[in-house]
Hints:
The protein is an alpha/beta fold and about 375 residues long. It has three domains: about 1-120 and about 360-378, no CATH class; about 125-230 and about 325-345, no CATH class; about 235-315, no CATH class. The chain contains 15 helices and eight strands. Strands 6-5-4-7-8 form a five-stranded mixed β-sheet, sandwiched between helices. It has a three-stranded antiparallel β-sheet with strand order 1-2-3. A hairpin with a 2-residue loop joins β1 and β2. α4 (about 80-110) packs across α13 (about 345-360), α8 (about 235-250) packs antiparallel against α10 (about 290-300) and α9 (about 255-285) crosses α10 (about 290-300). The longest helix is centred in the last third of the chain and has 33 residues, at about 255-285. The mean pLDDT is about 90.
Amino acid sequence: MRHKGYQSRTMVGLDGPITIRRARFLCSKTGKFIFPLDEVLDLPAGEVTVSLARRALRLGTKMAFAGLQEELLEQHDVRLTASTLDTLMRQAGGVAQADRQAALDVLAAVAQGCSREELVRVAREAPQRMYVSCDGITYRTQLREADPEHKGQQRLIYQEMKVGCVYWEDARGQWHKQAVAGRDDPERFGLSLWQMAVQCGMLTCPEVIFISDGGAWCNTVAQSYFKDALRILDWYHLVEHVWEAGRLLYPQDDKAQARWVHACIDHLYDSSGIGLQRHLDRCRAHRPGKDAIALEDLTGYLRPRLVITDYVEYRAKGLAIGSGMMESTCKQVVGQRMKGPGMQWSEAGALAIAQLVTHRLNGTWNAFWASRPLQRAA
């Protein structure tokens, strides 16, 4: 290498601009300039220091960039453009997404069983009872498609982010949870959720419950990776289907609609899904024609899922029958950060922010930044 003088570099830190004057060398083999001090100081590419990027992006997992810029100016007298924040988010979040996919590639290459289980590091002692759940939540993308209802116009395309959650109650009555998010197909996302459950101690947990709505992809996850878990159909999701049938049966009579729905819920509460099914069968016998279609639709949803609707037994065991924890996780990962007014996301941006949010929720934020994501993104 040949010394080629000095070059200054200005970066923005927590206390404002920082100018670093460092020696520059020319590599005789590659013809590229090398700055040894950058490696000694472990500086990332770009104009923002790691300390500022780390703090800004943590705030960025909770608020839109406009509010974040205001907070940085108020707290640190630092100005960062929206494009700079977006670049930082894509760099750090992109590394988090790449790390997640690399770990899944390793697991996917090994057949299910002891060999795969040995690849997952258990991070904590198993609780006495563990819940596993998954759901999807939509967000607006930057993509457009032809609007079939308005000729010549286009409409936004929405995508679904899959979100998974592992949660449990400790001996002191405090609830804990770990979250995972992604846009993978059900099989691969299920593997990611399984990995997190194993890290939380699932393999030695005495009681594992898989609770979700009746969606097809959630069923794929449950059957592929949680066959030994007790399955529960989310109570509130089933009740939503009952209300939908009630609205079809009594479209002009809110009171009659409510009476019918509450009667169904009473049967469901007192006699589980089988009790509701028997009630619906009796209703169908006395309501021919159009009304029968609404009842048949509800029956068609309930009957294949009767085995996971034994709510009387679940309550007797002290089990949760609703997936409220899953719903709140969806809101934290996507709803609060990705569904603000006017927000539209690219595929890479959506995945990046979702991974950063889950690192914050899971308490792995510091460990992630210790892995030098901005330097690795260069």
